[in-house]
Amino acid sequence: MNMITLEALGSVGVVTLSNPPHNLIGRDFIEEFCCAQERAVADGMRAILIRSDLRHFCAGADVSALDSGGVDASVTLDRLESIPIPTVAAVHGAVLGGGFELALACDFIVAAQSAQIGSVEVAIGLAPLLGAVQRLTERAGPARAREIAMLGRRYSPDVLERWGVINLVTSDDELNSASLSLAQQLASGPTLALSAIKRIARLASTDGVRAADLALTDELAPMWASKDVKRGMKAMHETGPGTAVFEGD
User: Fold this and answer.
1) Residue 245 domain flag
2) The total number of structural domains that make up the chain
3) pTM for this structure?
């Protein structure tokens, strides 16, 4: 039985975690997770929504997987970072350790009020394994990253939203609709521009603002001739800004 499923809802690829009882992470789980997102891109999806159909989003790593060497973090993170379309994580219940890191690897995090979120690896003598420290530093700054990772506490979504780690907090009943609405909005946006924004933001984070500035010309060049820009400019002249319907290039 697959631990990860992919289905298309219009232009949104919905990646569902389903590894009972708690979506614990191991090598096969990570491989299926990466493959599902890569398949969504190959199938022409324009945004990805990651969710769980179990009680928890993901309660962390399978200890037996850790004992056997776990996963290659750098390879896994490279694969996730190379996804060119927007990704949204919809989290609820336990979002701990590696589960938190799966969400942090996404562009947006939408959290239900029920979520209990934290980097808890320190409790068993480990540092976070899949990039939590650096991604928390990127989102919330080094002081908060150290606090979250070194203390190993569980946080409410409201606190993490205030710190800039989470984008949106919803009621549990509204999590699915709110996260899907966000993914649909991204899927209806200009594909080339959104992909470039992802790359520029990553470059600014890893190599600095100057490096991102130097990359702008090359990133912008293909957009000027794109169908998306032509549609956007036409709509702006005819009916006002923000009215274009994008179809991607």
Assistant:
1) no
2) 2
3) 0.92
